[in-house]
Amino acid sequence: MLLGFRQTSACYDAAMIVKKTLGALLIAAALAAVPLSARADGPKVVLELFTSQGCSSCPSADNYLGELAAERDDVVALSFHVDYWDYIGWEDRFATKESTQRQRDYARALGVAYVYTPQLVIDGARHEVGSHKRAVNDAIAVSKASKTRRAPVALTSSAPDRLTVEIGHSDGYYGDATIWLVSVDRQHTTTVDAGENRGRELVNYNVVRNFRPIGRWVGNPMTLELGPDELSRGGQGMGDGCAVLVQENHGKGRIMGADLVWLQES
């Protein structure tokens, strides 16, 4: 479904209006350099799915994100629920205005005149319709093959309420990147009683409950130790896990590095 910056009451199939952003030659080169099979080595690609329980086009993308999260250890998959479809009959219980604003910030940064669901933003640098599996896999391959500068990020958890964030050194980087802490629930099942998905049981994966900046990275190695107060801050309590993203352009640009850890498994 499509929504311009000026809200309208019409809903559209986003697949009909999203233009391809990756050229055939670029995709071919990336696929040759990086196999589609999941690999643990190298940086992780961040997948941000902007979705809504009120959107009939979203469940297939939600399920695909769950597949990627379960089958690939070279991605950090996150589900951001937006609130602009709540008015059509069903209020998404995970939707927040902050997630909607993050999507709008991406639209401006990527030069897109509209927001839509299900939109998948890849490494903060490109977007695809979240249910278009081949296009998403191609975009992941392009990100993995990219030679752009990265921030090495590693998360460890010694207890369910303790998190250590380590960000490594990057030679020649003199920027100022935002460090995001993202609280994530592994899975939620919801029976929808109204709206476009009325009567359906929806499963959402890696649901973002809250996210906030916790520091800046300027290219030098750094370590952050986070306890229960820091991990539960943000109004939703502590999630099942945490992700950390290092992102350029005041937290609205290219994602340089990321990791995710499940706290309950510690």
Protein architecture, described:
The chain is of the alpha+beta class and 266 residues long. It is 23% helix and 35% strand. It has six helices and 13 strands. The strands form four sheets. The protein has a four-stranded mixed sheet, sandwiched between helices. A four-stranded antiparallel sheet has the order 10-9-12-13. Helix 2 links the parallel strand 2 (45-51) and strand 3 (75-81). Helix 1 (24-33) packs across helix 4 (133-145). The longest helix is centred in the N-terminal third of the chain and has 14 residues, at 58-71. The protein starts with a strand and ends with a strand. Residues 5-40 have low confidence and may be disordered.
Helical coverage, percent range = 10-25%
Shape: globular
Strand content: 25-35%
SSE sequence, one letter per element = EHEHEHEEEHEEEEEHEHE
How far the N terminus sits from the C terminus, by CA atoms, comes to 39 Å
- Main sheet specs: 4 strands, mixed
Comma- or semicolon-separated keywords:
4-stranded mixed beta sheet; alpha+beta; 13 strands; single chain; 266 residues; 4-stranded antiparallel beta sheet; 23% helix
Provide the fold topology.
Elements: E1 2-4, H1 24-33, E2 45-51, H2 58-71, E3 75-81, H3 97-110, E4 114-116, E5 119-122, E6 126-129, H4 133-145, E7 153-159, E8 162-167, E9 177-191, E10 201-217, E11 222-226, H5 228-232, E12 241-247, H6 248-251, E13 255-262
Parallel strand pairs: 2-3
Antiparallel strand pairs: 1-4, 2-5, 5-6, 7-8, 8-11, 9-10, 9-12, 12-13
Helix pairs in contact: 1-4
